[in-house]
Amino acid sequence: MAVDDRFTDSNPKTTCVVLGGNGFVGRSLVLKLLKLGNWIVRVADSAYSLQLHHSESLLAEALSSSRASYFHLDLRDKRQIVKVLEGSSVVFYMDVAGYNANDFYSCYKLVVQGAKNVISACRECRVKRLVYNSSADVVFDGLRDIRNGDESLPYPWKIDNMLSDLKAQAEALILRSNDIDGLLTCSLRPSNVFGPGDTELVPYFLNLARYGFAKFIIGTGDNLSDFTFSENVAHAHICAEEALNFQTVSVAGKAFFITNLEPMKFSEFLSLLLEGLGYKRPFIKLPANLVRYILSVLKSRYFSCPLLIHFFQSALHTRTFNCSAAQKNIGYSPIVSLEEGITLTMESFSHLARDSSYSRCCSSTEQSKAEKLLGGGKVADILLWRDEKTSFIHFLALVLLFYWFFLSGSTFISSAATLLLLVTLLLYGHGFLPSKLFGFPIQRMSMSNFEISDTVVKDIVETTVHLWNKGFQNIKELAQGDGWSTFLKVAVILYLLKMIVSELLTTLIGIGLVSAFMAFFVYEQYEPEIDGLVDILLTGLKEFTIYLMRILPVSVSRLLHYHDNSQRYKGPGYAKELR
User: Could you give the CA distance from residue 367 to residue 471 in angstroms, rounded to a whole number?
Assistant: First the structure.
């Protein structure tokens, strides 16, 4: 097999494994290792394949030349980890996707048990260095500010954020395994990581902004936070590995905070991102005590939303960290400034900018959701007020008909007869009008306006016959003593219809008339905000359902779960199989 001369040099290449290399920070680290040129990189993650972006030509080239390779990995299976680690010298342990933030058991198995499996596999495969990507959140209890915190901060006795608590346990396991069977370990604790490819912090706030919910400043807005650009995190991992390679006593078995060394107000950081992408700065100040109360409700056992709680806490508290130890012991220094990092991040999320999303929604070539719901055509044009004059005329005509039939005090039949008589007189009188009246031309009505095509008549007759036959079949079943479920359904529907017609019909029709001319128009104008509110309500309903499943007796929960699955997976041949 021929050797690619582009990667042949006098320096031997070291094989490393990037666990979680398909993730946000992991991908940045993989690209940085490949740029250095002295690494053979094995990328491992929970995804079954590695999806490449158009800007990752270096990674594509490395995969084709065997300088890089990809492995599907489940951290709960130690045997898979051993297969990936065999023959490697260094392991960079990043965040691996695949866990449900609301499922403690799933998170524990992947984070804590996964860390135990990685440590055991490293020792078995004689890996020399293990660098763990932890988080500054492992020392934050969610209650107290941290100002210029250093590595002497202990783990809190209680961490409100479940994922942070589990990461703290995983970090402790990795640091305790230092210098056992020749394995040297250290841990890095970046704070508020952001950058291109971010899947949490930046997309979360941009989605809030799109839905109109990023207008708030929590408390005074003066609380400071440290942020870390993703490329700086990747650079810190390489610095830590180099320091471990020299077996520095001050590095092995230690944890180090990593930031951009530029603390700033959390609200200011958020404002720069939002303004850069065309959204308004947060300007409404919410009292801190109110937000704390909201957090206490969200953290109750009824609902669980870890990401929302984490960002609320970040926006509420001061959290700054001292990186002197990282600068001194592993030689870390940011290579991308905070300002440049924010600019690069905004460029990568340009597809979520307000102008682009607005133009997509309002483009004349693409229908809005409201128009799609109405099926397009004349009805959509009228209800969405495309032509205000036409829409107003139709609205006024419908209001007059509503008054004529329901509010005039006459019976429905007498109102219909009077209306037909009035229409007949108008049509008859229109026939006697001259071609011009006071200088205005009078258009004659074409006979085609009163004709119904044979196709329409045929469709109406076929539909009527089908409904008649279906109704007759149901009556026949009832007469033979069968179909009692059908009888009950019909009886209940007729009874409800009687109640509605006798008491609520007029009110419901009036509300429906006004809503039809308002609801679709309002939805089209405020589509992002309404969709966001619906998403929040659906999320709350889902969390409440999960809570109900937890508190219900096991037998009832299993029965509901089985019923849900059986309804979901019934195929076309299900009834045939039962027979």
Answer: 39
- In angstroms, the CA 380 to CA 378 distance is 5
From the list 529, 517, 527, 528, the residue with the least C-alpha distance to 384 is 517
C-alpha R_g of the chain:
34
Q: What is the full per-residue pLDDT of the chain (579 aa) written as tens digits?
A: 333 443 344 457 899 999 999 999 999 999 999 999 899 999 999 988 888 877 778 999 999 999 999 999 999 999 999 999 999 999 999 987 767 777 788 889 999 999 999 999 999 999 999 999 999 999 998 888 999 999 999 999 888 788 889 999 999 999 999 999 999 999 999 999 999 988 888 888 888 787 667 777 877 778 899 999 999 999 999 999 999 988 778 899 999 999 999 999 998 998 999 888 888 888 777 777 777 776 666 555 444 566 666 777 777 889 999 999 999 999 999 999 999 999 999 998 888 777 654 444 444 446 777 777 777 778 888 888 877 788 888 888 888 888 887 777 777 788 788 878 888 888 777 777 777 766 667 776 676 666 777 787 888 888 888 888 887 777 777 777 666 677 777 777 777 777 666 667 778 778 888 888 888 777 777 777 677 778 778 877 877 777 777 776 766 555 555 555 554 444 444 444 434
- How far is it, in rounded angstroms, from Cα 416 to Cα 348? 63
* Inter-residue contact 314 to 225 (CB < 8 Å): yes
Give the 3-state secondary structure of residue 279.
Answer: coil
Please give the distance of CA 510 from its chain centroid, rounded to a whole number: 37
DSSP state for residue 527 in the 8-state scheme: H
Strand ranges across the sheet with 146-149: 146-149, 319-321, 224-225, 264-265
What's the angle, vertex CA 116, arms to CA 112 and CA 117, rounded to 5? Answer: 115
**Predicted TM-score of the model (pTM):** 0.65
Q: Which residues are catalytic?
A: 167
Task: For residues 81 and 79, give the distance between their C-alpha atoms in angstroms, rounded to a whole number.
Answer: 5
Of 191, 215, 214, 188, the residue nearest 203 (C-alpha): 214
Q: What is the DSSP string of 214-252?
A: --EEETTS--EE--EEHHHHHHHHHHHHHHHHTT-TTTT
Per the structure block, which two tokens stand in for 434? 């001259």
